[in-house]
Design brief:
CATH topology of the largest domain: Tetrahydropterin Synthase, Chain A
Radius of gyration: 18 Å
Distance between the termini: 59 Å
Low-confidence stretches: none
Strand order of the largest sheet: 1-2-5
Shape: globular
Number of helices: 8
Number of strands: 5
Structural class: alpha+beta
Length: 174
C-alpha cells in the first residue's frame, strides 16, 4: 500500500512520532490515520513499560509563578541523561506540567500515593483520582489525554525513562 506524504505529516503532527514510525503505523493501519495514532500510542506504552526499571538520576527542577504572583510551583522531573534534561521537548514537558499543577491543584502525584483512609471517604474513587492525582488528570492543553499519557508519549519519543518525582504548589494564604 502506498502511504501519502500528507498522511505521514498529519500523523506526525498528531503524535510527534518519527517519520519511519508514522509510515509503519500507517501501513499497519491500512492508511487510517486514527488507527495509526492508536497503534503508535500502544507502541509508546510498550516502550515506556520497558524503560521503567532504568535509573533516572538526571533531570530538571521547573519553577512556575502564575501571573499576579499569587500561585507558584516547584517541580522535579528526572531522566536518565543530562542531554535529555536539556532537550526542548523535555523542557516543554516540565513547563506544561508545572502549569498543570498551578491550574488544577493536585494533592497527590499518583494513585498509589493516596492513603487508604482518604480513598475510603469518597464514593466515586475514579473521579477522585482524576481530580486529585496529577498523573490521572486530563492535560489542560489537550483534555483528550491524561498527564500519564503525555508522559508516556514523551518517553516513547525520547527513548529514556522519565519520572515526575515530586512537586510543591504554593498559593498566597494557604
Amino acid at each position: 500500500m502506498k502511504i501519502s506524504v500528507g498522511a505521514v505529516k498529519e500523523l506526525r503532527e498528531l503524535t510527534c512520532a518519527s517519520i519511519m514510525d508514522c509510515k509503519k503505523a500507517l501501513h499497519d493501519a491500512d492508511g487510517d490515520v486514527k488507527k495509526a495514532a492508536e497503534l503508535l500510542r500502544k507502541r509508546g506504552l510498550e516502550i515506556a513499560k520497558g524503560k521503567e526499571k532504568r535509573a533516572a538520576k538526571e533531570g530538571r527542577i521547573e519553577a512556575y509563578v502564575h501571573h499576579g504572583n499569587k500561585i507558584g510551583v516547584l517541580l522535579e522531573v528526572d531522566c536518565e541523561t543530562d542531554f535529555v534534561a536539556r532537550n526542548s521537548d523535555f523542557c516543554q514537558f516540565t513547563k506544561d506540567i508545572a502549569m498543570q499543577i498551578a491550574a488544577s491543584c493536585p494533592a497527590y502525584l499518583k494513585k498509589e500515593d493516596v492513603p487508604e483512609e482518604v480513598i475510603g471517604q469518597h464514593k466515586d474513587k475514579e473521579m477522585f483520582f482524576k481530580e486529585s492525582c496529577l498523573l490521572e488528570q486530563a492535560f489542560i492543553k489537550d483534555p483528550s489525554i491524561s498527564i500519564k499519557d503525555y508522559l508516556t508519549s514523551l518517553i516513547a519519543k525520547i527513548g529514556e525513562n522519565i519520572v515526575v518525582r515530586r512537586f510543591q504548589r504554593y498559593k498566597i494564604g494557604e
